[in-house]
Specification:
Elements (H helix, E strand, L loop, with lengths): L14 H13 L6 H14 L3 E5 L2 H11 L7 E5 L4 H10 L2 E5 L10 H6 L5 E4 L11 H11 L2 E5 L7 E2 L2 E2 L6 E5 L12 E5 L2 H11 L7 H5 L20 H10 L3 H18 L5 E2 L8 E2 L5 E5 L7 H10 L15 H7 L7 H9 E4 L7 H14 L11
Parallel strand pairs: 2-3, 2-4, 4-5, 5-8
Antiparallel strand pairs: 1-9, 6-7, 6-11, 8-9, 10-12, 12-13
Helix pairs in contact: 1-9, 2-9, 3-4, 3-7, 10-14, 11-14
């Protein structure tokens, strides 16, 4: 039994971030200002993106992108059932209709064959999710979008630092949304961003994120003199603050080293879990760089214990875990609104019942991993038949 609870997804906050936050607080400028602008330029350089705009969350980024892309009532957006509910919520709140599709076995990524079969006369966009930091096949996705005239809005909440064919996720595309929530590979406490190759779309998202005003507070109240704003259209209050950006400014330069450290711990889990009645995550596509955000296993149906029983057992051993995810189609709102039979989306339903995410971070120690896998082994001790990787 551990002396201290092992927190799932605990952020790595170092002294540079703390000092930068304190400097922001002492500066008197704690809202959206120069540090947000600096963080945006850093993200553009890191991603190789033409334009990045930081906002209050990935959910805000998705919501703003749908609004700026003029997707709303009468439109349909294809969304994977195996994702966090926020992906679908953004579509619902736009007034558009969410069309949920199944996943690919193993990776859990959106099944693009199922997605193409779901395209109809009202389909306007597709919202792929780079689940767990594993990139979608962007080549196939873009061919599909061109064939059917669809807008692609990528949910890259898990995928900062991931690559497809040597290019960062976010380096190209109409709209790619990122998250900097505390559990993500880098954090700004709360926060998100949109990367786009479309200057007009970036400008529209920036306006909509702050009430639809023609000028943000930094432009209105800086030492260049007061400037009047104009309310161009009704917008939201989705801006990032300088206090948040102060954290991100020092997190981003460490990201690649942290992904390497995550990969090392990923490989160690693969070794430690060999022979247990769990299905390990499949290896990355050779055309990609996996961001290694989540290490997910599937509990075997022959294990003798349900996923939730295993969760409870790990918690009793002071091990924090996660479930990513119970599919959108199984959530009460979507289940009742669209009446989807769980067996119509068999892969997403199966993952929903069996998936379990283990602690993974750049500072997870070997002893931590031994504690995790030892507790998991004990929780699954009645099962004797090992499950191979798929």
């Amino acid at each position: 039994m551990r002396d201290e609870f092992l927190v799932f997804g605990q952020p790595v906050i170092e002294e540079l971030e703390i000092a930068e936050v304190v400097a922001s607080l002492r500066s008197g400028w704690i809202g959206t200002g120069p540090k947000v602008l600096r963080f945006e330029r850093m993200l553009e350089a890191y991603l190789g993106a033409r334009h990045v705009r930081c906002v209050s969350s990935c959910t805000a980024a998705l919501t703003l992108a749908l609004r700026a892309l003029e997707i709303g009532p009468g439109d349909e957006v294809i969304v994977p059932a195996m994702t966090f509910v926020a992906s679908a919520n953004a579509v619902e709140l736009s007034g558009a209709t969410t069309v949920l599709v199944d996943s690919k076995p193993g990776s859990g990524l959106m099944d693009l064959g199922a997605a193409e079969a779901a395209v109809g006369p009202r389909t306007k966009a597709i919202l792929p999710v780079h689940l767990a930091g594993r990139p979608m096949n962007l080549n196939r996705l873009r061919l599909m979008s061109e064939k059917h005239g669809l807008v692609i809005l990528e949910d890259a909440a898990h995928a900062i630092g991931a690559e497809w064919r040597g290019r960062k996720i976010g380096s190209s595309g109409r709209a790619v949304a990122f998250s900097f929530y505390p559990t993500k590979n880098i954090t700004t406490i709360e926060g998100g961003a949109i990367a786009t190759d479309d200057a007009a779309l970036a400008a529209e998202i920036e306006r909509l994120a702050l009430h639809g005003l023609s000028l943000g507070a930094w432009q209105r109240f800086s030492d260049e003199g007061f400037k009047h704003y104009i309310a161009v259209k009704p917008g939201y209050k989705f801006n990032m603050t300088d206090v948040q950006a102060a954290v991100g400014i020092h997190q981003l330069p460490r990201l690649d080293a942290w992904i390497k450290a995550r990969a090392e711990r990923w490989a160690r889990y693969d070794e430690l879990l060999a022979g247990l009645p769990v299905t390990l995550p499949p290896p990355p596509d050779p055309n990609s760089r996996h961001a290694r955000h989540l290490y997910q296993v599937l509990i075997s149906r022959e294990a003798g214990r349900s996923r939730d029983e295993v969760l409870d057992a790990l918690t009793s051993h002071r091990i924090g875990t996660g479930v990513h995810y119970i599919g959108v189609h199984l959530q009460p709102y979507y289940r009742e609104l669209y009446g989807i039979d769980p067996m119509a989306l068999p892969v997403a339903t199966d993952i929903s019942e069996r998936t379990l995410s283990l602690p993974l971070s750049p500072v997870l120690t070997h002893e931590d991993q031994k504690d995790v896998t030892g507790a998991l082994r004990q929780a699954l001790s009645p099962a004797v038949r090992p499950r191979s990787r798929t």
